[in-house]
From TrEMBL:
Catalytic activity as recorded in UniProt: 1,2-dihydroxy-5-(methylsulfanyl)pent-1-en-3-one + O2 = 3-(methylsulfanyl)propanoate + CO + formate + 2 H(+); 1,2-dihydroxy-5-(methylsulfanyl)pent-1-en-3-one + O2 = 4-methylsulfanyl-2-oxobutanoate + formate + 2 H(+)
GO molecular function, one term: acireductone dioxygenase (Ni2+-requiring) activity
Ligase among keywords: no
Protein name: Acireductone dioxygenase
Family under the similarity heading: Belongs to the acireductone dioxygenase (ARD) family.
Gene Ontology terms describing biological process: L-methionine salvage from methylthioadenosine; L-methionine salvage from S-adenosylmethionine
Amino acid sequence: MTTLAIYQRPQIARPLQQLTRFDEIAALLAGAGIRLARWSTDGIGRIDDSETLLAHFQPEIEQLKRQEGYTSSDVISLTPDHPQRLALRRQFLQEHTHSEDEVRFFVRGSGTFFVPLGDRVFRLTCDAGDLLRVPANTPHWFDCGEYPDFTAIRIFTNPAGWVGHFTGGETFH
């Protein structure tokens, strides 16, 4: 289930607000420039083949490319037995920015994005079917969990793919 919790820094023990209704979450995030939408995952099952997933969602991806100027896409899939799961988690848990939008569509599983905005931190857990677009140059970090189990399509303007610029900002998870 898609959820949003908003924390006040520096007291991050309890959220100020928690939302579970998708339309309310999307509206609140839109006010901060973050876009959240839904794509159907009906008929997908557990397809882990990247080419098959990209082909299945080609119409949606191509529409986004036309609308937003994105040029490439790939698939990231992490499982509890992935040999680099801990190293990738450590990397993603560091606050970073990108010179382009961070666009993620969760095909399977879930993951949690943290976006600090002023003295607040938005903690958004995305689930299968969620399409998230964090604007370019927005500090954020991502937690896939100690035993990640998700598949996501990533969409880029830079053909090189994921390029993070680490800020050294304080994070939590």
